[in-house]
Amino acid sequence: MDYDVVVVGARCAGASTALLLARQGRRVLLVDKAPFPSDTMSTLYIHQPGVTRLARWGVLDDVVASGCPPLDTISHDIDGLSLTSAVPAVDGVSAAYAPRRYVLDELLVRAAVAAGAEFTDRAQVRELVRRDDRVTGVRLRTGDATATVSAGLVIGADGMRSKIADLVGAPVLRSAPRASCVYYTFWRGLRTGFGFHERPGRWIARIPTHDDLTVVAAYMPQAEFAEARRDPEEAYLSAVESTAPDLYEQMMAAERADRLRGTGDQRNYFRTAHGPGWALVGDAAHHLDTISARGITNAFIQADLIADAMSGVPTEDAASVDGATSGFARTMADTLEGPYKSTLELAKLRPTKTRLRMLHAVAGSPELTSRYFAMVSGVIGMREFMTADVVDLL
Ligand SMILES: Cc1cc2nc3c(=O)[nH]c(=O)nc-3n(C[C@H](O)[C@H](O)[C@H](O)COP(=O)(O)OP(=O)(O)OC[C@H]3O[C@@H](n4cnc5c(N)ncnc54)[C@H](O)[C@@H]3O)c2cc1C
């Protein structure tokens, strides 16, 4: 066996999985077909459970040193309310971050390599190697060269359009229709901080990142995507102007720093995430509407879960590997069910009366507002948020 594990895809899911498995002393090969460092579509925000993992893995200091600004307050404007609070502190980390992906993914890859993983970019997996019904390796294409690599476990961290999922025929277990679409770009010199503006049919996010830039994203219903595509600039700017006029005014006085990007391919699914000799992590395993900005955090959670499941499991022992990946898939689906459900609800862009009543109720109390944001960030669950005092207010 050439490696214990081959991880296909080296961004937030793959690089962090490789990092944790390499730290277990395993021989890990991490490959990506893209050149690194490189960018990918994202509005960049990492929730607290993701940031605390970066801190635990020793990567957060590098993110901070890269000049990524800390996001220590959060605001949410909706229905005449303006909720503002400090970003919830967890494990001594009291800021969130939104690093550029060509910074974050590269730092994770470097950490994986420092932990002993081998990394090759511009290397594409086109086929799997099998013995009977078991995946035992990959065929890699790098430039004109093709190589066969054997491994005890092949992990597909290759995104929503996963080739590995395709090759193993991993079925979608559950899915929901696309609900939103999004356009975003970067603005230099905004002084708006981190937050959201919401009204029926619109969700605007402003997220400060490196180089004095702020991502401003406009989410609209999927039903409007065909119309928005005809004139994305107009759709984007009028969504911001009609939902967050103060932000729009600042944008008009600021420097636009990039082209507009957008997508309507907002899939919602859980795939079967394990099988004989293989597993899926990150978007390959589970994707949800990007409106809740959960993808990176979910990728880190999955990396932790698969590393925990594999801890102490010898990769030569096929039955134990398959038992571990099956356990990972179960725990992953349970852990990510809550954020999935709340994201599906949010992505409808139809704030319910109950939710508005709850927001009006918590707005009067700094403590409850802070707890509300802790729930949104995934620091506490719905049950911990809905304590007797909140229920009484409702
Ligand atoms: C518009 C938009 C906004 C978003 N905003 C946020 C946000 O604010 N916060 C957040 O947390 N998430 C956000 N997301 C989601 C987030 O970007 C993804 O969830 C995250 O990138 C998933 O990481 P991943 O590592 O699973 O997959 P990816 O980032 O998709 O990486 C997969 C990698 O696999 C490689 N690959 C694919 N096929 C092969 C192959 N055959 N061989 C070798 N390599 C291969 C690719 O080159 C790629 O580098 C957003 C997404 C979009 C589209």
From TrEMBL:
It comes from the Bacteria. One of its GO terms (molecular function) is FAD binding. Residues 2-297 form the FAD-binding domain. This is FAD-dependent oxidoreductase. Signal peptide: none annotated. Gene3D superfamilies: FAD/NAD(P)-binding domain. PANTHER family: CONDITIONED MEDIUM FACTOR RECEPTOR 1, GERANYLGERANYL DIPHOSPHATE REDUCTASE. It comes from Streptomyces venezuelae.
